[in-house]
Fold this protein.
Amino acid sequence: AQSVTQLDSQVPVFEEAPVELRCNYSSSVSVYLFWYVQYPNQGLQLLLKYLSGSTLVKGINGFEAEFNKSQTSFHLRKPSVHISDTAEYFCAVSDMNYGGATNKLIFGTGTLLAVQP
Amino acid sequence: DAGVTQSPTHLIKTRGQQVTLRCSPKSGHDTVSWYQQALGQGPQFIFQYYEEEERQRGNFPDRFSGHQFPNYSSELNVNALLLGDSALYLCASSLDLGSEAFFGQGTRLTVV
């Protein structure tokens, strides 16, 4: 079984400052890794994904994440945030051995990124 | 492309009633998954449908059931509603063995 831990429930940051949202996972098998963003009263939008290859993954809206297998982490970073980045961010994993990357997703509890002017 | 569409967007039901939620997948997608997101929590996987069969199921009671139609659209049914079933229900569509799941806007269910 897999589990995902997002260590910070809220991250306040000033506009144009850098930010890192932390994600650790636990799994007995290899996993695919994802970051999703959820704006108020909306569904989830994929920011980026790690399937294989380079451990540094670049996504939409200037976000990137680095897969660290030894530390079982997949932290999300952005060098300079905007007010419009205020949203809930979810880290998720899926079992690589089950087939494609779109099988059952296990989500963390989310991190609220609150960007202040 | 309309993306993943869910209906209705909101509804209110009474304890003990039954509810049906609907999902139309993104054009060309053949796999539909359902998730429950309680307030302040991450989404929890309910089940996944492929080729009109339930392929995977999460840790939800039998009161939660589903169906996939030949056009790949899907329904989620919940019987004997409890107050704890109040949540945002998300539908995600994808290609079988694909690399990305696309989510709809969700249906906000309130049980009173």
In short: The mean pLDDT of chain B is 94.
